Structures are given as structure tokens and as C-alpha cells.
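Please fill in the sequence for the structure shown.

STRUCTURE ENCODING:
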């Protein structure tokens, strides 16, 4: 049996105000190319880097959240390579002695199952620039036509690199691990987690082992994957490609590949560099990074309840299914809103149902977070009160809910304004049914002769006359009484 062996290297852009070693703005997405640069981040002669406090604080938060051992004294090193988007010819990183090591996270696989993925290390690193391929619709095409431009805005952006052990056994697990890491980083406002903007990037390493004879393929790296779905797709492609080669007795080249969106395949970039190719040596312009025990303790106290623990609590405290608890806990704003709303409604499952269904659908359609809407927990309480009291139907509640989210007006006010309060006056409903019976005596005879399905005609007639506002249970009861007893 062939088994995937996968490890991830994840680059998380830290949500600092400035770059790692200079005062240039770290908010570079959407800015004019080559505008957020200075002599320090572009490596001009005579400049010196100065490590920002924000970079240290956020990296430390990440390390603690991933249960790592913190090295009280860590060092910076130079990783040397020569790309067009690396003006210094080297990258400041931590190689010999990183900030943190030996951590772990628990990844939910569904059906109550978890996989513990060990974290090998977390270290601070500066980002390189960005190459832009022009005149080509895909990476493969850019080799034959078009040009390559360089934007240095990202140079010096602070990154926390999170390196897992090869504990992941399938492409699906790799995606779930990435999502778990994203959720943890977002919870602490350490990283936005936006892969489309490049704020979170993944290099995935995969080899395939034959579990019967223990033989393993060479390791292949798939670089710079920019979505969770593509992480899974790229690894699925590589697993099949490597497995097929092993079945045929072919050798797999140790190389770096990239995911090509247009062809839905991976493409070879270069043979895999060895660590010696980067000629690491200590960074001479930066002193050791010393982290005090007081700073570690202070930072640990600032870390909120993490998604996995919150999921377990939602299951135990509110009686929610694991899936609902996982979805609600993945986003800190969403989970906080749920808890406040459930406290007001006293109905956690019903509250979760509305949030999991209608609310998340609206947020996705409008590209918003819950914090960007006007929805408050009080709106959920008012909505469920209307439903519990029978004042509006479920369909009418769904009709007004988008207006509640976008306007912030209470559901009861919108229902009143639109005339959606449910009709529960039996006399009014009886009049409507008698009108339907007079209009279609044939249907009355069919019902009384045993065709009970005709009842739906009378219910539909009442609903049409009341514009869907009649209480279905009362309509059903009154219609049966009139049809069967007269």
C-alpha cells in the first residue's frame, strides 16, 4: 500500500505596522509597485537592520499558541540566494537557533477524530519581493512569451515561518492542517490568513512510502500554493504522479515544483536545493534576540481561548454537533457573536442553525465578516421570539433576515412594516376556506370521496389570499373541520 508522507512550511505575514527591520509600512497590498521601499529593505550599502518589537511580539504569540518551547536566546542568519526579487542577495532568517521549537497542534478530521501534527520550529524571517509574469496566462506559457517584472514592496515584510513535522498522511489532512493554522493565527490577530493576498503561503513537501516494503520516494516540494483547495489539489496530483512512477519502477527526482492553476497540474521549477546551497551564516548586523521570562508570561496571558478548545466547549456546554461547533469556533468574531446571542435567546441550537444557514450564506454572498454588518445579538433574540410566538412564519423570517443584517432594524419592526405577521384568527381563515370551497365544489366532492390529498388545494388558496401569513397549523385544522363536518 502506498502512503503519502507530507510536511508543510507555512509563511504567515505578521500584522505589524512596519516591516521587520525598517520603518516602511507593512501594508503594501494594492499599493503602487515599488513605493513602500527604503534603503534598508532594498539592501543599499551602508544600511543596518533594526528588529521591530511588533515582529517579536506576534511571533512569540504564534509560538505559544502552537505549544512550542521558546528559546530564550535565538539568533538571526543570512540565507543566500540570487533571485531578481531579492535585491540584497540574501534573506534575514533564523536557521541555526530559531525562536521556538517542538510544538504541536490537534487537527480535527471530523467524526470526533483528531490528528496531532507536531511543529518542528517557528522562526522569524523577512519576505522577498514579488515577480510578475506579463503577457502569459499561465506559468508554463510565461517561459515562452511575455516578460517578468519585479515589485520590491514585499521586501522586508515580517514573516513567521511555521514548519511541521512530516506527520500528515493525506492531501485532505494537509488542507485541514492549513485551515487549523490559519484559524489559530486569526484568533490572535497575528496574521490575516488571506491566502489570495499572499498573507499566508504554503510550501508542501511530499514523498510516498510503500508500507509493505518500507521503500520511499524522493521528497518533492510544491511551492507557493495560494489557496486551501489548491493545497489539497496539488498534493493529490503529486501523490498520483509519484505513485504511478513507483509502480512502474521509475525514479522520482528530488525537485521543487509549482501548482499551475490553468492546467491544474504541478510544473517542475528546478532541482531541489540542499541546505548547503544557501550558504547560511550568522547575520553580523543583528544581535541575538533575547526573550525574557516576563515577556513570555505576559504574552501567554494575552492568548485567547483557541478554536479547538472552544469547539470542545461548545459541544459540551451548548449541545451542538461537532460540525456546527467547528464552523462557529473557526472565526473569533462569529464565535463571540454566537455566545452572546445564545445567552439572550436561551436557545443555542436554534441560534446556531440560523447562523450556520442564513447568516453565513449572506456573509459569503456579500463578502463580509459579521463585524462588518449591523447585526447584533439582540436581533437574533427578537427573531426567535417572533418565531416562537407564531407571529411570523419560518419563510417570512428568512425573507426579512437579509434586511436585518444590512440595515440593523429589529426583525419585529420589519415584519410589521411589511405586514408579515402571521394570521391566526380562525374566523378570518374560515372565511378564506369557505370562499375556496364555493369556488371549487368539485375539489370538495373529491376530498369527501376519499381523495385527502386535495386538502393541499384549500391550504394553498388560504395562503395565497393571506400572502403566506396564515398559520399553517390553524389552516390545516380549520380546513379539515369544514370539509369533513359540513
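FILLED IN BY: designer on duty
SEQUENCE:
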Amino acid at each position: 500500500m502506498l502512503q503519502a508522507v507530507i510536511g508543510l512550511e507555512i509563511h504567515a505575514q505578521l500584522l505589524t505596522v512596519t516591516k521587520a527591520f525598517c520603518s516602511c509600512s507593512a501594508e503594501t497590498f494594492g499599493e503602487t509597485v515599488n513605493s513602500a521601499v527604503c534603503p534598508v529593505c532594498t539592501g543599499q550599502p551602508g544600511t543596518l537592520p533594526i528588529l521591530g518589537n511588533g515582529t517579536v511580539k506576534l511571533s512569540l504569540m504564534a509560538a505559544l499558541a502552537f505549544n512550542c518551547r521558546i528559546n530564550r536566546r535565538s539568533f538571526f542568519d543570512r540565507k543566500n540566494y540570487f533571485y531578481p526579487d531579492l535585491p540584497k542577495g540574501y534573506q534575514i532568517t533564523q536557521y541555526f537557533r530559531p525562536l521556538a521549537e517542538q510544538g504541536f497542534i490537534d487537527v480535527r478530521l471530523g467524526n470526533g477524530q483528531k490528528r496531532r501534527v507536531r511543529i518542528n520550529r517557528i522562526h522569524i524571517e523577512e519576505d522577498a519581493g514579488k515577480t510578475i509574469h506579463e503577457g502569459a496566462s499561465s506559468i508554463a506559457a510565461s517561459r515562452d512569451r511575455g516578460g517578468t517584472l519585479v515589485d520590491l514592496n514585499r521586501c522586508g515584510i515580517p514573516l513567521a515561518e511555521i514548519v511541521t513535522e512530516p506527520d500528515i498522511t493525506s492531501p485532505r489532512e494537509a488542507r485541514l492542517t492549513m485551515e487549523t493554522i490559519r484559524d489559530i493565527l486569526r484568533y490572535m490577530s497575528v496574521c490575516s490568513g488571506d491566502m489570495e493576498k499572499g498573507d499566508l503561503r504554503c510550501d508542501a513537501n511530499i514523498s510516498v512510502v510503500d508500507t509493505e516494503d518500507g521503500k520511499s520516494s524522493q521528497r518533492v516540494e510544491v511551492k507557493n500554493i495560494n489557496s486551501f483547495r489548491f493545497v489539497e489539489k496539488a498534493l493529490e496530483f503529486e501523490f498520483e504522479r509519484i505513485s504511478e512512477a513507483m509502480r512502474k519502477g521509475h525514479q522520482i527526482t528530488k525537485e521543487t515544483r509549482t501548482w499551475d492553476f490553468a492546467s491544474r497540474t504541478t510544473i517542475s521549477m528546478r532541482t531541489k536545493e540542499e541546505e548547503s546551497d544557501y550558504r547560511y551564516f550568522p547575520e553580523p548586523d543583528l544581535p541575538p534576540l533575547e526573550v525574557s521570562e516576563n515577556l513570555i508570561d505576559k504574552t501567554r496571558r494575552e492568548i485567547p481561548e483557541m478554536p479547538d478548545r472552544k469547539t470542545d466547549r461548545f459541544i459540551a456546554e451548548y449541545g451542538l454537533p461537532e460540525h456546527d461547533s467547528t464552523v462557529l469556533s473557526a472565526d473569533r468574531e462569529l464565535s463571540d457573536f454566537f455566545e452572546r446571542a445564545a445567552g439572550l435567546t436561551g436557545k443555542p441550537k436554534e441560534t446556531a442553525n440560523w447562523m450556520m444557514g442564513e447568516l453565513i450564506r449572506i456573509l459569503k454572498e456579500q463578502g463580509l465578516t459579521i463585524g462588518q454588518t449591523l447585526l447584533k445579538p439582540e436581533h437574533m433574540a427578537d427573531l426567535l421570539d417572533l418565531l416562537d410566538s407564531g407571529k411570523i412564519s419560518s419563510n417570512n423570517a428568512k425573507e426579512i433576515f437579509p434586511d436585518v443584517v444590512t440595515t440593523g432594524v429589529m426583525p419585529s419592526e420589519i415584519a410589521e412594516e411589511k405586514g408579515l405577521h402571521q394570521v391566526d384568527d380562525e374566523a378570518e381563515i374560515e372565511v378564506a376556506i369557505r370562499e375556496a370551497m364555493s369556488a371549487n365544489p368539485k375539489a370538495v366532492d373529491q376530498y369527501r370521496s376519499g381523495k385527502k390529498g386535495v386538502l393541499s388545494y384549500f391550504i394553498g388558496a388560504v395562503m395565497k389570499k393571506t400572502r403566506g401569513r396564515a398559520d399553517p397549523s390553524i389552516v390545516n385544522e380549520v380546513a379539515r373541520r369544514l370539509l369533513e363536518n359540513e
